[in-house]
User: What shape does this take?
Amino acid sequence: MSDKMEIQYRVLGTIGTNVYFIVNKETRETLLVDPADNADYILEQCRMRDYHLKGILLTHGHFDHIYAIPDLRKSVDVPVYAYSEEAKLMEDPWMNRSQAWAESISVKPDVLLSDHQEMTLAGFRIQVLHTPGHTAGSCCYYFEDEKVLISGDTLFCESYGRTDLDTGSYSAILKSLKEKLLVLPDDVDVYPGHMDVTTIGHEKKYNPAVAM
Assistant: This one.
């Protein structure tokens, strides 16, 4: 990670989702990743730490990664980014599982992304990597200059995301892992949607997907 970037995270929501604050230390401009729950707490963290929120990045549309968005939108006017193929799932309470787990929600992204799209947000250059498998529109965010990957529920520490929910695919997630993520440099730090931070090098040695 470069000296310019700071990453803080909080574990929020009923399924223990990692909610990331990606901060430009020079400007305090901040990107929020996968706001799982408790919008008031997220906003309080921004106020306390002088985070200037510039965008919300979504790795996929399951409720445990988007639940705070409707309440956040009542207080802050920042764009929500998601992969184009994930829009339908995010908007459908049955597909995003909110209908089954909690209060139904429907979220419409402001900006739809494409594979290998590059964008600059909060002073960081970001590449979008489409990584279907956990859902059809799952994506990861690669900060090449900082050697950071936000992997959502595609890649975990010594594991990977489930594929038995709507639009999931076991063959697709293995392809995503092998062809998109585990080909990145070993020293890339991986920040997943759940559980511990890892590195690409560690996953090349210990992730079960490697042998499949």
Observations:
- The first strand starts at residue 5 and ends at 12.
- Residues 47 and 61 are 26 Å apart (CA to CA).
